[in-house]
Amino acid sequence: MIEWHDTAILLNTTRHGEYGLRLELFCENHGKQAGFIKYQKSRPQIGNIYNLRWRARLIEQLGQLRLIPQQEIFAHIAYDSNRLLLMQSLTHILARGLADADSHQTLYHKSVALLHRLISDNDPILLLAHYIIWEKDFLFHSGAGLDFSICALTGARKNLRYVSPHTGKAITADAANGHSWREKLLLMPPFLQDDLILNTPPSPQDLEEGFALTGYFLNKYCLSLGIRKLPEIRQKILSSLPHIIMPHIIMPHKEYHHLS
Asked: Which of 34, 73, 182, 245 has an alpha carbon within 20 to 30 A of 80's alpha carbon?
């Protein structure tokens, strides 16, 4: 009998047979895993964090799970459609974009931190900014090969303003100025260059640029995994926010297609 214990975010639930549920979870130490539980009076909620035991005779089998709630997330945000959409987008991207059993501890902790922010933060602009930062972190840690920290042409680490849609590497404004290909670059807002502390809320334009930037590479990365498109959840995030805070998203160049 194989058995292991871990802490995990619940990503998805589907019916399994007549009396059970198949759960998909993002575990701190074991990556994305699936398991089976029998129907319970209290159904596990997507987005919640659980301590779990996974047990099976063989590693390739669908293991039987025992869940112990560690932290409620869903109950705290179910009343707020904006926060709920952010949580749903996070769990769906993790479920669709991570390979099974690959450990991503840093991404796990960043995902838990964002779920905690959905409970504690009250500024919708900052919440969306942190969500966009999380999308960037997902792309960094899941194998998309992005690097926004240094200019690919000069090696500079300041005044980074653009990202190549082909390489995913950053370029400074000075290095791009005067070149005909500058118009084909994706814009990178300041808060994606230094996201450790958001001293001031980003502007609506910053959020537009950030959401378009991560959206472009999410679409490109998911296509490489054979996922044809991301769900409409991500599209609804911005339209669900107050119109005065965030106008509709516009891609920075007409040749780039937004996620659908």
From this structure: 34
